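Hi V.,

You were right to ask for the full record rather than a summary. Here it is.
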Amino acid sequence: MNEPTNIEKLIYFLSKYIEVTQEEKDFLQNIIQNIIFKKKEIIHQQGKIQKNIGFIVKGSARVFYIDDSGNEDTFEFVFENTTIGEYRNLITQEISPASAQAMEETEVIYITKEDFLEFMKKFPQYYTVITEIMGDALSSGITRNKMSRISSSRERYEEFCKTYDDFFQRIPLTYIASYLNMTLATLSRVRAGKL
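Predicted structure:
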């Protein structure tokens, strides 16, 4: 069996929310663009205006921000078959509060703001879909918030392992430590069963 094309992966993702018509597929096929990011390459940058919204077809990324002290705080991991980018920032053209960085070679299909708005104008039923996708994305923020309230380093780590079980081996330990709000040394002790 052949590997699904990028547009087929996007349609499969959307079909979880709506039945995608041939007209919508054709329209999407004409507006999506494809880009491959190398490992550690920035997909979008904190402090810049977001110009498109993407969908990861292969690979992974971390979403992080740099605080006033220059420290990186990783707060989300995104893997294939997931959207990347903030809908609100795309529409309002506000400066992005966070960066996204490829954790491995990552292939993204994306739509520019202009094409996205044209698609939404032509197919307004997708406003409901966007709301549902944003709701699903919000749940990952709730998960991180829940983990940050767990006082024990071991419990935070175990919860993380459950949440990211399928992807754990693909996430560098430095990013896991940042996500769990602990030092790399503390994470090493937790993993070794010393904490």
